[in-house]
Structures are given as C-alpha cells and as structure tokens.
Specification:
The protein is of the alpha/beta class and 219 residues long. The chain is built from 6 helices and 11 strands. Strand 9 and strand 10 form a beta hairpin.
Length: 219
C-alpha cells in the first residue's frame, strides 16, 4: 500500500485545522501530515468550552475531541485513514494504541525513553498533557510525551496528534515518525502535496468554519 506524506510548513491555527478536515473529507488512501504553527496558540477539543483557554491566548477548536493542547514547541502530525482501513474499522483504542506504538518507537530512536500508558487517569483535567489516558506515550516518570484525538466519519478516521518533549524536538523525529508509522501501517510513504480539490475545500472550511467566532466559541 502507498500512502501520501506531507511535510507542511508553519500555518495559522485556523489554516491547520481546515487542512486536516479537508484531508479527511477526501480520504481515499492513508495520509500523514507533519506541520507547524505560525504562533504559539492552543487547540481545544470539539466538545470543550472555550472558557478552558487561558487568558487571551489565541486558540482554535478542533474537529476531534480530547483536551486542550498547547502548540508552538510541539511536533504536530495528522494521520488520515480511509473508511475501509483496518485501523478505522478497529475503533478508537486499538487504533490509538497502534499509532502510539509507532510514536513511541520514533521517540525511542530519537533517544527518548518512553512507554505506553495502561491506567485510566486519576483525575480529570482540561489539558490533554495533564491527563494521560490508556495508550498515551509517557516518560519513565509518568509524564505525558504524546497524545492525540480522533474523529470518525463516513469518509474515514482523522487522528490529530501532538508530541512534546523536554527541550527542543529532535530534528530527526519527523523522519523517525514517518518511518515507524509506515512500519506499523505496513505501507510505503510517497512524498506529495495537497490536491487542488483539497486546497479549495480547505480554503472554504477556513473561511466558513475555523476562522469564525461561531465555530470557536460555540460552547
């Protein structure tokens, strides 16, 4: 199987979320997108209230659930799988665990000792990285290094992940991530770009959804 690998540059929070949803809506083969942020900001889960955002911090509401994630120092990636992919059909926890096995392997190759969480969180918290859930990636002390959230539609599965390690992200981590996800998914990545259809829908979603107050302050 061939998947498409997108190494995108930095974009606004609104643009990044619009691109991710557009990729989901056009899902016909696996897509891995690794990208950055133009400014420090946070993303909040689809079901969260905007009141969880600290102060006047710029934020965007994701299409996926989960908790608040701080962006700017993290390595952010999106994995899109079509509706008939085995991990889409497997459900949230099995697919989450499979993908995070690859994330943990990539971190390990980059020199970061880590493991997957097995226990339920001891307490609730609005911040994703302060609420480890089963199959999240943890350091030996139990601190969360990587988390993610998913959404399934008729088109497929959208997995939005964030990796945050002490200090700076290792320069080779994006390549290690792509490598180990390819092994986990049993496919080969081919470097690509967004199609015209994906670009056009992304622009539409940016204008009509992700940059609007109605979307971001809807709860």
């Amino acid at each position: 199987m061939i998947g498409r690998l997108l190494f995108d540059g930095k974009a606004s929070a609104f643009e990044n979320m619009a691109v991710d949803e557009s990729l989901l809506r056009h899902a016909c083969a696996p897509v891995l997108r690794i990208y950055g942020w133009q400014e420090a900001c946070v993303s909040i889960g689809y079901f969260q209230k905007n009141s969880v955002v600290p102060g006047s911090t710029p934020f965007v509401r994701r299409y996926t659930g989960g908790g608040l994630v701080e962006h700017g120092r993290d390595l952010t990636y999106t994995l899109v799988l079509p509706a008939d992919h085995p991990l889409t059909l497997a459900g949230t926890l099995p697919s989450y665990r499979s993908i995070h096995n690859a994330v943990a392997a990539a971190l390990g190759e980059a020199g970061t000792n880590c493991r997957l969480a097995t226990a339920q969180p001891k307490k609730d918290h609005a911040s994703c990285f302060l609420k480890p859930v089963p199959a999240d990636v943890l350091d030996p002390s139990g601190n969360k290094l990587a988390g993610a959230a998913q959404r399934r539609t008729r088109q497929g599965c959208l997995h939005q992940g964030s990796i945050l390690v002490p200090g700076t992200i290792p320069k080779n981590l994006p390549n290690f991530l792509a490598k180990h996800l390819a092994q986990e998914l049993q496919l080969e990545w081919k470097a690509g770009v967004q199609t015209d259809e994906e670009i056009n829908l992304g622009k539409k979603l940016l204008q009509e959804r992700y940059s609007t107050r109605d979307w971001n302050f809807s709860r």
